Amino acid sequence: MKVFLYLVVMKTKKVNEVRKQIEYEYARNAYPDGFPKIPDISGKRYTDKDFFDLEFEKIFLKSWLMVFRENEIPNPGDFKIFDKLQRDILIVRQNDYSIKAFYNTCSHRGAPVVREKKGSTKLLKCQYHSWAYELDGSLLRVPDERDFLELDLSCRGLKNVHCDTWDGWIYVSLSKEDPGSLIDFLDPVASEMKCFNSSELITIWQNSTIVKANWKTCLDAFMEVYHSPTIHRETVNILLDGNGMAAGLLKNGHSRMVTPKRINLDGGMLGAEGQEFVPFIDTCDSIHAETNVAYAIFPNFITPTDTSGYVAILFWPRSLRETEIEYLQLGPKWKGNEKPQYWVDQETSFYSIMEEDFKNLEPMQKSHDSGVFESMPLNYQERRIYYYHQTVDDWVGRENIKNGLMTEDILSPYIED
After folding, report:
1. Rounded to whole angstroms, how far apart are CA atoms 44 and 373?
2. Residue 358, helix vs strand vs coil
3. What whole-number distance in Å separates Cα of residue 131 and Cα of residue 219?
4. pTM for the structure as a whole
5. Rounded to whole angstroms, how far apart are CA atoms 85 and 187?
6. Percentages helix, strand, coil for the chain, rounded to the nearest 5?
7. Per-residue pLDDT tens over the stretch 12-36
8. DSSP state letters, 92-153
9. Contact, 174 vs 87, CB < 8 A?
């Protein structure tokens, strides 16, 4: 009981701290006293192929990555291929309902053990020579085994990939070493998002878009609301008031952005006004109704949250100048078979907002590539972007970065305890 009360007190304390920060942001009329000037970021970080290769190798092939929802493979033998990193990763529900992940690569000659992107099976069988594997990846049998000399089946199983789950989400890490505890990596965001009970939410809709821009060009756009009065004037800016935005820098490269609402203070995103039914997750704090609490989880996850649910946005680098942006809406189940009008309108609204962002991303990449875009000055509202780039350099290894591309480590003293 004492532990529970302690956690509640800590949660309330953080909410109160955020509310005070919002008040401070509304009241200030100058750059915050004592906060350092944010250095320019080199434009070459968006165009340098060597730097991109380092990011891919040191971050995307090592970090924990959110891939898809657990309920997409609910039963033993259900599987799905994760293919966002130029590799096919086979993720399989086990007989004990745990989840394991492997490279979709037969240990004989590298053929796939499944061809379908999603399905169900009792046995994983190579599509070339019918080598058969158990669901746990162990090699069960080999046709014409007599023709192999000293073939040890116990050493020829599928190559494992680190896999874990968090609140209904499946994560993998392609690291050759132990990536460490998933929950330790996700905290404090995992703790702060616990109120959403994500494992109980359902996917309302999902989509993806290919954008011809560097993954950081794309992700940067979702790290601030400074742009809302300009490109989201008739959408986001109607709902949110960026003048009171309270940003928090969190450990492990994660961050939080809490932006007060102008309307729908009882919950619901833009368009909730006038609706007969607005979903409501009653385990959320009132701050989730009165504001938009958005999180960034390193390296590629952004989510704007609300008491009605949240959108998960994932940024997958396809090449130096091309990114796949995947997004799906989660929300509580509803009674009946007909989708509530709130969600029908939300889907239309969200796609419209995304299109407003997409209009700038490819032209921005062209500017980056032109050679005239040498550096990027960031303001106090945009400090989450700098912190993100600072974390990228920590993962890449500052000793590996070319002169002129590296960020200074100036924001570590401002990471929340």
Report:
1. 8
2. helix
3. 42
4. 0.95
5. 24
6. 35, 25, 40
7. 899 999 999 999 999 999 999 999 9
8. EE-TTS-EEEEES--TTT---S--SSEEE-SSEE-TTT--EE-TTS-EEE-TTGGGSSS--G
9. yes
